[in-house]
Amino acid sequence: MDDHQTQDLVKELVHRLISAEPGGGGRDAGGALRFAHRLLSSRLAPAVLPDEHALAESIKRRLAASGRPDDALAFADLHSKLSARSRPASLWPLLYLLDSLSSHRRAAAAASCLPNLPTAAPPRTAAAAGGKPASRASGAPPGGVVLVSKDPDNIREIALREYTELVLDETEVSEAALVRDVLYACQGIDGRYVRFDKGSDAYDLPDAVRVPSATRTLVRKLCELGWLFRKVRGFISDNISRSPSNAATEVGTVAQAFCSALQEELSDYYKLLAVLESYSLNPIPTPGSDSGVSSNYLSLRRLAVWLAEPAVRMRLMAVLVDGCRGLRGGAMAGAIHGHAQHGDPTFQDFMGRLLQRVCSPLFEMVRSWVLEGELDDVFAEFFIVGQPVKAESLWREGYLIQSDMLPAFISPVLAQRILRTGKSINFLKVCCDDNGWADAATDAAAYVGTTTSRGGLGYGQIDALEALVVEAAKRIDRHLMDVIHKRYRFKDHCLAIKRYLLLGQGDFVQYLMDVVGPELSEPANRISSFHLAGLLETAIRASNAQYDDHDILDRIKVKMMDHGDGDRGWDVFSLEYDARVPLDTVFTASVMKMYLKIFNFLWRLKRVDHSLTGVWKTMKPNCIVSSPFYKEGTNIRSQFVSVLRKCQVLFNEMNHFVTNFQYYIMFEVLEVSWARFSEEMDSAKDLDDLLIAHEKYLTSIVEKSLLGERSQGILRNLFALFDIILQFRSHADRWFERIYELQLRGKGKSKPKSKEASSWVDGGRKAMIQLAGELFRKMGEDLDSIAKDYTSSLDAFISQLPMQQHVDLKFLLFRLDFTEYYSRVSYNK
C-alpha cells in the first residue's frame, strides 16, 4: 500500500461502493477506508484455491444460466484478451474481487425486495375474525401496493426474539466475552472464564459458569487449538530455551532448524489472531437488532470457521512434535518425512516447506562429506560416525553407518556410496598423503551441474544428490585406484608375497632350504635370528631374487615364532613381509597371520620334499651296487637286496604322494587362485572391490589347501603323513650311515666313530657280516612298521578327500589314485 496511485484507486472504489448502497451516504467513509487498508495489508487469503480457469468458467455458466448469453460471450472474449497480455497468475485476484462484488450486490438487491414488517402483529377486525377479509389492514402501505412476504406475521422474527431471551436467561457470560477468552486460549493464555485444567489437560469452562451445553461444547472444540498450540510452543521452548551444555548433547542443528520452521509457521498464526482480535471488538448483533451494525463481528461460530484451517496445520505440527520428541539428526528428519506422504496438495506444500528447513543441515553434512571428506557433526546427528583408529584400520573401522540415524528418503545403497566416497577422500588424505581428490570432487560437481558451496542441495532433490554422489564416487575411486597401483605398486607387492611367502620362487626356496637346513635342525632356543637373517640374505643373492626391486627385498624378514623346550628350528622358522602404509589396509595383521599359516604349511611341505630328495641321494643306485654287501654270499646279499627293495618301494610311494600333492598345491591352488585374483584386481573399481578380491584369493588358498576350519580332521592325517616321511628320512640316514661305516671298515679305511660302531668291527669279517645281518633284519622290521603306519594314514587321508566340500579336492584324489590302486586295496580290506 505504499503506492499513492493504488491508495487513490482504493479510496475511489470505497466511495463508489458506499454511494451505491441505499442510504450509504450516512456511513463513515473514513472507517470503511481504514478497514479496506487493514484488510489489503494483511496476509489473509480466501479459503479457496486460486484456480483462474475454474473461476472464469463459473462466471460464464452463471451469466448463461441467468439468461445473459451475450454477456457470457463478451466476458469470455475479454478474459482471453487479458490472459494473452498478462501472466496467468495475475488475473485470478481481479476475477475473484469482481465476482465477490457482484455476489454482494445481488444479495443486497434480494434483501431490499423483502423489507422487515412491523414487529407487532396487526389487529384483526371483526370481519376478519368472522372469516371475511378486512378492507385494508391497518399499518399497510398506502397507495394500494400489496407487499409480498414469506412471513407476513413475522413469526420467524418473534421466535428468534423468544429464543434469544431464553438463551440470555440461561447464560451468565456474554458471547463476546467467550470469544475473547477463546482467543486468549488459542495463544496459550488463561482467560477470565476459559482456563487450562491440568487435571484434564485441556482448556474448559468451569462448571460454575452457566452456559448452554451447545455453547460449552463449541468452546471446548475451539480451545483444542490452544491445547495444540501449548504442545508446539512447549516443544520449541524445551529445545531452544535451555543451557548450551545440554543443547549440545540433546538438540542439534536439525532440531534447531525444526524449531525455527515451527516458529515461522506460528508467526503467521499470530498474525491471524491479531486480525481476529480486531474483529472481536465489534459488537455481536442479536436477532431483530438494527441492520446498521458492522458485519465484521466475531461470534463463536464465525470463529470456528476462521480457525478451521489453522487447526489443521496446528494439529499436524503437534503430531510432528510428538513423533520427534527424543529424536535428533537424521532420525528426526526421517520421522518428519514419514508424515509427508499425503495426497492433499495443501498438506504436501506445508510439509515440503517444513522439510526444506529441517533437512538443510543434514544435506549440508552430506555435501561436506562427499566433496571434502569432512565429518562436521558436532551433535552426532549424521548417519555416518567416525571413531579414532590406527591408519591401517581407517578404511575398515574408521567410519561406520548408524542405521538409526539414516532418514527414509536416503536408501541404504545411496548411504553406502556416500560412506565410501568420504572414506576414499580421508584414506587419500591420511594414508596416501595425496590431494588429487580435490580436483576430482570439483569436476564431479561441475559435471552434474551442482555447486560445491553451501545450500546447493536440499529436500526433494534426491535425484540430484544421488547423481552427485555417484559421479564423485566414480572419479575419486578412480583416482584412489591409480594411486594404489601406480604410486604404491600394489600388484608388485602382491606378487612378491606370492613368490617369497607362498614359496613361488623355486630357486630361492631350494637354496634357502639348503643353507638353513643344518641350522634349523638345532634346538630352537639355540638358533640366532640374526644368523638366519644373514642366511636369508645369502639365499637372495644366490638366486634370481637378487634382481628384484630393493624396496621389495628389504621388506622380507625372518620371524621366529614362540617355541617350547622341545621345538626345533624347523618348527619356529618363518618369513614375514613388511606391508607399510597404505598397503597395510589390505595386508592387515589378521591377513598376515593367515599368510603366516599358509607359509608354515608350504614350508613343511617343502621340507618333506627336501627330505625325500635327501633320501634319494643316499639311495643312489651306483652307491648301492658298489656296496661290498651286494657282492657277498647269497644269504647276506638276499637280505641286503630285500631291505633295499622295501626301502625303494616305500620311497617311491612317498615320493608319488608328495610330488602330486605339491603339484596340486603349487599349480591347482596357488597359480589358479593368483590368476583369478589378478583379473579381479585389474577390474576393481574401488578399494572395497580390491579388498573383496584379495579376501576371496586368500580364502580360496586356505580352503583348497585343507587349512580351513572344516578340514581340520583331514589336515591332521596329512601332517601325520608328513611326520612319517620325516621319520623315514631320519631312519634312512641312520641306516645308510651304519651301512657305509661297515662298508668302509670292510675296506679298512674307517675308524669307528662310537662304541657301538667299534663293537661291530671287533671280531673280524665273520662278526661284521653277522652284525650286518642283524642290521638288515632290524631295518626290515622298521621299514615294515613305517610302511604300515604310512599306508594306514594314507588310506585315512584318501578316504576323507571325497567328503571335502571344495570341488578341486576331487582332482587331487584323481591324481593320487589315478590307477585306482588304493581304491582296490581299500576294497579288499
Radius of gyration, in Å, reads 51 Å
Helix content: 55-70%
Backbone shape: elongated
Structural class: mainly alpha
Low-confidence parts lasting 5 or more residues at pLDDT below 50? Answer: 112-149, 749-763
**Biggest sheet record:** 2 strands, antiparallel
Distance N to C terminus: 112 Å
Tell me the β content.
under 5%
Mean pLDDT level: 81
Count of distinct strands: 6
What would your notes on this structure say?
By secondary structure, this protein is mostly helical. Helix content is 66%, strand content 3%. It has 34 helices and 6 strands. It has helices at 4-20, 29-41, 52-65, 69-85, 92-112, 126-129, 155-170, 175-186, 213-240, 244-250, 252-280, 300-306, 308-324, 329-338, 345-358, 360-372, 394-397, 412-430, 437-448, 462-487, 490-500, 506-520, 529-541, 550-553, 569-572, 589-618, 621-625, 634-683, 687-704, 712-747, 755-761, 764-800, 808-816, 821-828; strands spanning 195-197, 202-204, 384-386, 399-401, 556-560, 573-577. α3 runs parallel beside α5 and α26 (589-618) runs antiparallel to α28. One of its GO terms (cellular component) is spindle pole.
